[in-house]
Amino acid sequence: MEFDVLDEHEQGELVQKWLRENALSIVVGVVLGIVLLFGWQQWKAHRAQHAAEAASQYQALTDAAGAKNEADVTRIAELLRKDYPESAYAVLAAMRQADEASTKGDLAAAASALGWAREHAGAPSLDALASLRLARVKLAQGDADGALKLLDGIPKDTYVALAGELRGDVLAKLGRRDEARTAYAAALAALDAQAPNRALVQMKLDDLAVPAATATAAAKPAEKQPS
């Protein structure tokens, strides 16, 4: 059996014909590839510059806070939240605003800033920290149930000591003394022996201990009084 085999000239003619027929598609494909590659590089460069600008603004905010310049702190924090909402620096700025508001006793403003921080946190660790601080504000507002709900949403292995102490505070407020003692004990177990707040947590735990005399008296039936 014989096979028809194209010689080199015929092969070359076919290749040239295919190129002529598909030249536009090839050019478009090459141009599109170049545009996409250039666009990707430009996008990465823009993101890097954007992140650097946010970091610079947050450093300016930190400097202003150190200088006790509240007006600049507020201005820069608002700028970060407006122009860099996806940045961790904007979330940190919102939490700093919440701290300032709490110091002034403006718990509503603190809760609002922390709510924004939670919505834009992105990273689980930042979300947990914002939730922890918002729970503290809610407890200060008298909303112990709301605070406990927020604490329940924080991963068990995140900020163990801080979350445990605050959980103890919330449960004690709700009158759930046994659970509060368990929470304080867990916080103590997570704290370093030299931690500055260890003594405070121990004191809270001790305050919930049931005195032996009280427990004994409660266990005895009330004596009849002579008529």
What is the annotated CATH architecture of the domain at 54-143? Answer: Alpha Horseshoe
Kindly report how far apart the N and C termini lie: 131 Å
Mean pLDDT metric: 81
Radius of gyration: 32 Å
The structure class reads mainly alpha
Which features would summarize this protein structure in a list?
77% helix; single chain; Serine Threonine Protein Phosphatase 5, Tetratricopeptide repeat; 227 residues
Describe what is shown at a glance.
The chain is mainly α.
What does this structure look like?
The chain is an all-alpha fold and 227 residues long. Among the domains are: 54-143, Serine Threonine Protein Phosphatase 5, Tetratricopeptide repeat (Alpha Horseshoe); 159-209, no CATH class. Helix content is 77%, strand content 0%. It is built from ten helices and no strands. The protein has helices at 8-66, 70-83, 88-103, 107-120, 124-140, 144-152, 160-173, 177-190, 198-207, 212-219. Residues 212-216 have low confidence and may be disordered.
Give the secondary structure arrangement, pairings included.
Layout: H1 8-66, H2 70-83, H3 88-103, H4 107-120, H5 124-140, H6 144-152, H7 160-173, H8 177-190, H9 198-207, H10 212-219
Helix pairs in contact: 1-2, 1-3, 2-3, 3-4, 3-5, 4-5, 5-6, 5-7, 6-7, 7-8, 8-9
